[in-house]
Specification:
Oligomer: single chain
Strand content: 15-25%
Organism: Duganella flavida
InterPro entries: S-AdoMet-dep_MeTrfase_Alr7345, SAM-dependent_MTases_sf
Number of strands: 7
Strand order of the largest sheet: 3-2-1-4-5-7-6
Helix content: 10-25%
Protein name: Methyltransferase
CATH class: Alpha Beta
CATH topology: Rossmann fold
CATH architecture: 3-Layer(aba) Sandwich
Number of helices: 5
Keywords: Methyltransferase, Transferase
GO molecular function: methyltransferase activity
Largest sheet: 7 strands, mixed
Shape: globular
Length: about 210
């Protein structure tokens, strides 16, 4: 369950925008953003360099989107998660989006990626007034980073604290993906809960001044 109409509205992505889809996976959201921003907009399907060696070849998946009819405004990009943008790339992006992958930034396969530096890089790329949307699988409140690797979950409060540390201001939350029946104890791939996990969706804003 993704509820694209509700989440696209929450993201505030609009025609002509520049969007970065962080860790696009199969490209579900990249394709939707591509259609929404239109020919005058741009979508960067960003694959962290740390995961380009995965068996699924996530960079190839991202590159394939651009060759599809109607998605020529998508460009696959890859660089280390903590890499800071060059000066000429500051303030270029309207919306940065990451769906169900923020917790992975803390996992061992990311080779010790600096999450604070990653969030700072997102901050620098966004235009003043731009939005950063983080959706992920909820962990037990107060658990912090305890279950990012084993259950693939993360505490909402921890995400908020990390993102705000980079200079963002919390701008809202939607509960459309919340599931009260999920007690946050199972791994997200467990057949009993897969596709029915409790997920939070947070929106942060880069201050205009």
């Amino acid at each position: 369950m993704r509820l694209p109409a509700e989440l696209l509205a929450f993201s505030k992505v609009k025609k002509g925008d520049v969007v970065v889809d962080i860790w696009p996976g199969g490209g579900y959201w990249s394709r939707l953003f591509s259609t929404l921003v239109g020919p005058s907009g741009k979508v960067y399907a960003y694959v962290p360099a740390e995961i380009t060696g995965f068996k699924s070849d996530p960079l190839a998946l991202a590159k394939a989107i651009a060759s599809e009819p109607g998605h020529g405004n998508v460009e696959a990009t890859s660089y280390p998660a903590a890499e800071q943008p060059q000066a000429d790339l500051y303030n270029q992006v309207d919306v940065a989006w990451t769906f169900e992958n923020y917790h992975d930034l803390h996992d061992s396969f990311m080779k010790g990626a600096d999450v604070n530096a990653f969030n700072q890089a997102v901050f620098k790329r966004l235009k003043p007034g731009g939005y950063y949307i983080v959706a992920d699988h909820a962990a037990v409140a107060g658990s912090g980073l305890k279950n990012t690797e084993d259950l693939h979950r993360i505490d909402l409060a921890t995400v908020r604290a990390e993102v705000e540390k980079a200079g963002f201001v919390f701008d809202g939350e939607t509960s459309v993906l919340a599931v009260a029946a999920d007690d946050h104890q199972l791994k997200i791939f467990d057949p009993a809960i897969r596709g029915k996990t409790d997920r939070f969706v947070l929106r942060f804003k880069k201050p205009s001044h």
